[in-house]
């Protein structure tokens, strides 16, 4: 009988089966042969196949018949052959947690009962839910316990040294580490201290609530980085999740090359019009309607910046060079513009606060908007006032518009500085009831028409002492990412040029000629005095 069992094991090489139907057909034939064997040999055969065939383990021993689908069959084979070191980003409701966190984890501890597994989710409650599913299987699946009596307890509640969601599950093992065989922990609300797991599993460490602000995203990322110390030397990691934001922790994992990316959207090409890989076209279309473009792009296409969600296109960008002009009678090519300074202040000078943005925007007689100069930095009150005075003295704007939500704290200090330096200029507050995103989206038609020009380069030294290029940061961090960018302060500040209270207007050709004449006279007089 032992010979027959070994023969069946050799024949059961799953790699030769292309479709799940072929594999299941083979299993049915072998089950007929198994009837001739004694019960221990039958169980030994099932146990060996379960340890080497994840699809069999899930669909037969764990009774997950809902996985009987070609796409899921292929995913089972893929993650079993390459289980560790991957960031698996799959569409919502595509069985990623069932296959990896549930099935693959069970297969791993059945193959190696000495493993210590730490399951981490955004909160500990979420991690306990994953652990609870495994716990119930080890308690209630009689066939599984019969197949693996050397790993699983017959009555774990009474026999196991530890058997709770709070402290973990200990399986039958020879060693006695301080870590349980399986434990569930929260990434941001209660990481363990002094533990080192041989296998770290991260499932749903990013949630909708964890990406509402840049600070929340940073908190999750820092918690993830801290949790890496909970891995044992030479340990393995598995990441499973779904995208929520362009700059979420998963993106940081990708940027740091902490894991290899394995991504599976809901369609064959990752586009809304693509062929669904698992769900029916009707169900996927319904989700698209219910979720909206952005959520659908994140959750189902694994693309936080799907075309439908993007408000601004790279092809809309136009550039110019604010500089000295030898061909005209003006010293600078922006002097014939109607110039305005826009200020969007932020909080105190600290790394996790928003930025203060100051823009010098010129309106030309050609009916276009030109960004002449800009600052985007983390500035305290004194630094904000200094920057504003410097810009005003250099560009002599028609008006200064100040975001009213940050103005009250600043205006008293700025007025005192005006008294101190005997240099005064009016400031008007810009507020209104229009939502920020709506205010920013109002810029779209002007960008699309090619009427907003950015400087080719706009260097400034930031609070960190490094040189930055405002134009580069504007494009990469906000323009191309809106409405899912981590920050939107530059776009919001620029949108204030459309505020009716500011009253910004374009100069006429007559006004431009008058400006040029006056400025030429002033410049000529200055040059004459210098020569004298």
UniProtKB/TrEMBL annotation:
Gene3D superfamilies: 3.30.420.240, P-loop containing nucleotide triphosphate hydrolases. This is Phage uncharacterized protein (Putative large terminase), C-terminal domain-containing protein.
